[in-house]
Structure formats: C-alpha cells, structure tokens
Write a structure and sequence with these properties.
The chain is mostly beta strands. The protein contains no helices and eleven strands. The strands form two sheets. Strands 2, 4, 5, 6, 9, 10 and 11 form a seven-stranded mixed β-sheet that branches. The chain has a four-stranded antiparallel β-sheet with strand order 1-3-8-7, with no helix packed on it.
Length: 120
C-alpha cells in the first residue's frame, strides 16, 4: 500500500500562482510514476501532469506552459507549480502514484484531494 498526503491548495486570484505538494509513504520503493489529476464539478477527472522516476513528464494540453511538475525522489514527494492560473483551473486536485504490485499488475493510489479555487 502507498499513502499520499497533499497540501498547498487554496484560493487565488486569476493570474496568480500556487504550489501543491504530495508526500508518499508506505511501499514507496514500488512507485514508478507520480502525478496530478483534477476534477471540476460536472466533469471527468483529467490528467494535469505526471512524471516517471527517470524524470520523463507528461502534461495535459490545457496546462502546458503554465504548470510544472517536479519530484524529489529522496523525499518521495511530487510538486506541482501552477502559474498564470485561470478560473477554469478551479477543481479538486488529486495526487496519484503508480506502482508495480507484481510483475503483471500495476496499481494507482490516490490522495484525498486538495481544493484549488481561482477567482476572476
């Protein structure tokens, strides 16, 4: 099992910045990727960004050029720096961790979510 604890959400004005953090604990040696997803009211959960242990990253189209994902593998922590925030970025942001449970099975763990609200 992997446990994820997020922090850093809040209320910010349009154009502002926030930084989210997510610390993993438990069977962290089995994690091969960590990332962030978000879910706005009435919408499906969508990828914001993710990053493998080797540093390869992937971003959702709507955040490219504004958000940056980073990891501190020594601390088992993933960060999301969010700049130039827009009202449409308002959502609950969830941290994710993908791990290899066994050679044939991968498992995704989720954090509890942190609210980000961008006012216009």
């Amino acid at each position: 099992q992997v446990q994820l604890v997020e922090s850093g959400g809040g209320l910010v004005q349009s154009g502002g910045s926030l930084r989210l953090s997510c610390a993993a604990s438990g069977r962290v040696s089995t994690i091969y990727a960590m990332g962030w997803y978000r879910e706005a009211p009435g919408k499906q959960r969508e990828l914001v960004a993710d990053m493998t242990n080797s540093g390869a990253s992937n971003y959702g189209d709507s955040v490219k050029g504004r958000f940056t994902i980073s990891r501190d593998n020594a601390k088992n922590t993933v960060y999301l720096q969010m700049n130039s925030l827009k009202p449409e970025d308002t959502a609950v942001y969830y941290c994710s961790a993908d791990r290899q449970k066994d050679p044939a099975t991968t498992v995704r763990s989720w954090g509890q979510g942190t609210q980000v609200t961008v006012s216009s």
